[in-house]
Write a structure and sequence with these properties.
The complex is a heterodimer. By secondary structure, chain A is mainly α. Chain A has 9 helices and 1 strand. Chain A is globular. In chain B, helix 7 runs antiparallel to helix 9. The longest helix of chain B has 60 residues. Classes of the chains: A mainly alpha, B alpha+beta.
Amino acid sequence: MLTLNSSEYMQTQSRYHKTKDQLLEENSYVEASKTNPAKFEYLYNKYHEQIFRYVHQRMDDKDLAFDVTSQVFMKALTNIHKYQFRGVPFASWLYRIAKSEVYQSFKESNKTRTVNIETTQVYDIIEELDEDRTEELREQVIELIGDLPDKDLQLIEMRYFEKRSYKEIGEILEMTENNAKVRAYRILKKLQKQFRME
Amino acid sequence: MEERKINIDREPITSAEIATRKDFQNVLSGAAPPAITGGKPPFYKTGWFGTTVAGIAIVVTTTLATVMLNEEDPSKEQLAITNNGPVEDPLSYDEDTPCVTSLLEEQDVKYASYIVNADEGGTITHTTGSELNIPQHAFIDVNGNEISGDVEIKYREFHDQLDILFSGIPMTYDSAGTTYNFESAGMMEIQGYQNGIPVYIKPAQPLEVSMHSENPSPVFNIYNLDEGNEKWDYIGKDEIIVQEPEDGLAANLTMEEIWKKPEIIESQNLIEKLADETDAKLGEHEVAKKSVEQWTKKEPAKPNKFNPKNNKFDLDVDPKQFPELTVYESVKFEVPSTDKSFTPDVYQINWPEAVITEKVKGKIYNLELTNGNDVRNFDVYPVFEGAGYTQAMQVFNSKFETYNAQLQKRIKIQTEKNELYQTKLKEWEKARAEQAVLVAQYQAETGFNGGGEDGQPKQRVSTRTKIARVFAVFTFGIWNADCTIPAKPKGQKVMARFVDERSEPVLLSHVQLIERSRNSVYNIASTEFDKLKWDPNEDNVFVGVTPTGRVGYVNSEYIKAIPEGEKRHTFKLKMLDGRRIAPEELRRQINI
């Protein structure tokens, strides 16, 4: 059976959320970058590691991940005049560019989408499902996660592997926080049904 | 299904390695020039760019120099706190500090006092249910002479992290040159006195202690604290007695069995039903929302009045291609006054080809004029003059009325759908919360504590199950059922300072780190504050006790909010008056 009790208290390790003042301060750099690209360095330094980790999570090749990360920032700087502040961190825009660049790189390099999983993260999911931690179940869950449709995989990756809050996931995937929550619930429920059938 | 590769436990990449691959200049030179510079040379070839880069270099150099100059020696930082007039008394260090010094007597576990006749022996039952079995003629004096008559037994137990913390009992253990920390499954102290003078246990007549414990795991060993040499001595294994409650109901339930309880199944069915209904309502709301969004795109454009000061074009537009314009008469296209690329010579040239394309329907169009290789592009917007403007406004007003009526209708539907969705969502969340309470009740009953390390389930212990650890006590002092854990947690690391709620410095000789999942306390000296570490995956609490008895702490939420990679952190401690607050209230506040 499934509950999401513990997840509601799961703390994100992300540095994504900001106060209103921090958002406004950040946006001042975005606006400055529109007329003076050198000002973009602040945003580059601030988000380089986060974006790299996001890209690398979905890739096998470290060097390619660094290249794609650079590409993300180049695209962002090229298109920064189109960016409109909507009261959410600038990072959500960067993540959307990163998502698109990752898929573009798969097409161009003929590489395979990679799912990077840590054992402890799988156990987090198993605990969320209130199942016993067994080696057999761990392997089943890994296999089932690997077979998830991409939109479901993304949500699971963000929630359980990258420890993002539902608010942040909602902003990156352009859905409401509640919608992200409901969807995560449904995906886990689906996983549970599948491994119970196996 | 696309092909995927799955990596398990891939080697992590450090922040330092990622930092080495940062190259902003590469990003700058690789980015296409921003649109605002269209038609101008690439920005990196402009004069300002060189100036800016030089400026950045100067700023970076200056910043680095400033950082380096400000790089404080941690000891200086601590010294600075003292010199700034700390709110607490300066610390004094006593070389003769005993091995066990209570951090705060008011919060230290109090001794229970029992009288036993040394000639007869007997069994003492402590308030926790622990039993002390004392054989006849078990005590001797300092000279080895047998004691006769009444002996006072002082006894206390330490069961949770705050019991351990305030006792001041060291929890580190050295084994073969490696230092570990202890996690405890129960610790006790026992002392014996006759007329206020210490007595001793006869070597051949050890006491048998059946100590209450909350952990039945066999991985714990018994240790005795050698206070003279300030070290723990390994004694051996204890005997673990687990006594299930007589009704045996909840104590034997596994998690799977809990989930088979009819009320839990019923609650799960309700949750799933509500999840389906929530999904459906969410879908309806999304459709209604999209309908509003789509409709707003159809908002008729308000006609603009021709500004004679601006440049304009008189163009014949294809009514099939631009039906939104042809309902009006005498439409002209005006070039925004802000468009500096427009030059009057445009009017002097014969343009055989003029193509107009829509950018924002009814509002902005792109006009491309071509004469051989000379191609000019301008943003233009439709304008009207004279009677044409009046007619256009009439058409607009009529169109807007129809548009707005439909928009309001759609907004109303969206609002209704959203309310239905929110209601359903609340029902779903309520059902989940109610189920959580039900499950928690069963879990509390069974003492279920989730999975352990290495994927092995931990043993479940009912709160009604009695666990006792039985071992022989051959000397008075402190006895502990322990297992070893790493000496220090790994993970996040900062250079730490501590202040109170008023941002006044708090002087601490040590802080204690509690990981809620372990019955253990890490004792961290001020000399280690420059590299204060914790495991971000644990539920941590830092607690510090000042020389004046104030207890400062930061909870798990606070610690989790410290950004990964932050180098320095000033911990804003929540302060409690440790000398006045009741132990129960202190636990409630710190959530132990």
